[in-house]
Amino acid sequence: MTGRAVTEDSIGVNQFKIDPETRKITRCPQGHQPIFSLYDEIKETHTAKFYKEHCQNCPLFERCQVKEQKRAYHISFSENKIRTDQTRSKMGTDRHRELSNYRAGVEGVPSVLKRAYRLEHLPVRGQVRSKIWIFASIIAQNFKRCRKYIKRSGLPTFMLRIFRKKFAIKRILITKTAL
Asked: Where is the Transposase DDE domain (predicted)?
């Protein structure tokens, strides 16, 4: 995620209550109503002004992103800022970490296929030959993983001989398609 992050002690703009129909700010995080609220559809920005008395006496004042003006406190933010703050607030959760770890594990499969089986630069031309090459690479990778599993689990050695023969098929496919 790019851009400057909101500091740990400040309140994100996603904490402000927004009416889904009018898209105007209806309440601050502490529950105070604004004096004035506006939603600009062209710029997709939310703007609100709050009484000075409410903001100065608010326990969240030090953490709030409102700016002081002559007669009131003012806040203005875009739809994109709301989405960014919502995403950032979810980033520290256990669910986000779990999903991040899952994605990191999945990213390894295409990486191995690209490096080990030359999927970045296929040595064949044509859609049919390319599909055959890619499917053969995926099958070879699956056999390789099965072979490792069998070795680790201590299954009979005749199973390993079967897998050696399957790898020979992949080598034959490579030499035939390269010609």
From this structure: 28-145
